[in-house]
Amino acid sequence: MIQANKLRWLGVACIVTAVLCGLCLGTWEHVSPFFGHARYQVAAKPLQRFVYAFLQTLKAFGFLAGLIGFFLVATRQGLILKITLGLATLGAIFYSIVWIVLAMTARDDAIYIFRRPIGSDIHSNGGAFFLWLAPIVLGVAALFAHRISRWRSIWPIIVGLAGLRIFGIFPTGVALIIEGIIWAIFGAIVYLSSGGAQQNRDASGGSASRN
Q1: Could you tell me if residue 40 is inside a domain?
Q2: What is the pTM of this model?
Q3: How far is the C-alpha of 140 from the C-alpha of 149, rounded, in Å?
Q4: Domain containing 178: what range?
Q5: Mean pLDDT, residues 141-162 taken together
Q6: Which of 49, 145, 169, 198 has a Cα-to-Cα distance from 99 of 20 to 30 A?
Q7: pLDDT tens, position by position, 55-112
Q8: How far is CA 21 from CA 4, 54, 128, in A?
Q9: Is 116 helix (H, G, I), strand (E, B) or coil?
Q10: At a CB cut-off of 8 Å and minimum separation 6, what does 125 contact?
Q11: Residues in Cβ contact with 85 at an 8 Å cutoff, skipping those fewer than 6 apart
């Protein structure tokens, strides 16, 4: 059984990552855009490229920590959700690799798979699994599990759906800051729900032992 304080640390990891990456990436992107105007062109200098790669890697695993925390505190942890988290984990790993190679090559077609360029496009670099798919699936599962309040269950769905749209609506720098805010709130939900999840498990265990 995972203790409440360990679950809280998953929420803290998500909050800190979201605030740090959202502010740093968003502000830096506003001051000095990462990409140029030509296709696959990276305009950023080496320092910016490698700091970006580090922060994007941190973001992938910090957000994944939040997803794991939410999975533990808010859902019934069924097979479909475990598969979803597995895909999110693989997505986070591949996302990180792509950003590291992108920083090294200064090209947005950092990796080719079956002649398809893989770079910053979240549709192809694994980001879709942990930024969009997993939050939506976990949120829907939480609504049926009734382990946390309805609005806390709905928030990850909002996170996933917003992630689908914000980069098409707002400038990249603004979208990165918004992404950081909505994920920080998600991490806070994991943190705040951890104590209640532990109490529910203890109560269930006590009822089972009495029976």
Answers
A1: yes
A2: 0.90
A3: 12
A4: 4-198
A5: 97
A6: 169
A7: 999 999 999 999 999 999 999 999 999 999 999 999 999 999 999 999 999 999 989 9
A8: 26, 10, 18
A9: strand
A10: 94, 95, 98, 99, 118, 119
A11: 67, 68, 71, 134
